[in-house]
Amino acid sequence: MLKIGITGGIGVGKTIVSRMFQVLGVPIYDADTRAKWVMHHNTALRQELEDAFGPATYTDAGALDRAYLAGRVFNHPERLELLNSLVHPHVGNDFNEWAAGHADKPYILKEAALMFESESWRQVDEVIAVYAPLELRIKRLLKRDTHRTEADIKAIIARQLSEEEKMRRAQHIIYNDDQQLIIPQVLALHEQFSKAEV
């Protein structure tokens, strides 16, 4: 079974591209969603997070206090690095368990915004980078995330690995730039991955 990663910065449309693969019957592992699940349900990770960021990391009811945790790591790169170093290994283990349950498929997809930053590209055979120009990404995000300002969006983008670097490291690029149709690009890769010998 081939393991394919799909990544791209905020606003490039990687989730839309992933859904197209899903319609074709490809199992999709959404690393961001699963990370939230693991942070709630993995007892070892819960203890590690409380040790690192304090007992207020979880509410009295046992739920992750995302606002508290965000406040602890925002504008503190070393704390964010610590958070990621605790969470990513557990998500990696979760992915491996999930992937084992889909061994009958020709290939699976792992969608992760921080594929290269988290080193999770090491768990996949090839990576697709979804690309969109900066101006288009900002326009999409202002429409989608009405609570964010253009300055907020640019700050998030500035903290992520550059699109140029992601495209350099990826084996495949899907252009979601409103100039090229996405579906033919997805279908071409689907055909290629479905026939691949691992």
Write the layout of secondary structure elements.
Elements: E1 2-7, H1 14-23, E2 28-30, H2 31-41, H3 43-53, H4 66-73, H5 77-100, E3 107-111, E4 126-131, H6 134-144, H7 150-159, H8 163-169, E5 172-175, H9 182-195
Parallel strand pairs: 1-3, 1-4, 2-3, 4-5
Shape verdict: globular
Q: Could you report the average pLDDT, rounded to the nearest whole number?
A: 92
Give helix % range: 40-55%
Give the number of DSSP strands: 5
**SSE succession:** EHEHHHHEEHHHEH
Strand content: 5-15%
Oligomer: single chain
Describe the structure.
This protein is of the alpha/beta class and 198 residues long. It folds into 2 domains: 2-27 and 102-195, 3-Layer(aba) Sandwich (Rossmann fold), CATH 3.40.50; 36-87, no CATH class. It is built from 9 helices and 5 strands; from the N terminus they run E-H-E-H-H-H-H-E-E-H-H-H-E-H. The chain has helices at residues 14-23, 31-41, 43-53, 66-73, 77-100, 134-144, 150-159, 163-169, 182-195; strands at residues 2-7, 28-30, 107-111, 126-131, 172-175. Strands 2-3-1-4-5 form a 5-stranded parallel beta sheet, with helices on both faces. The mean pLDDT is 92.
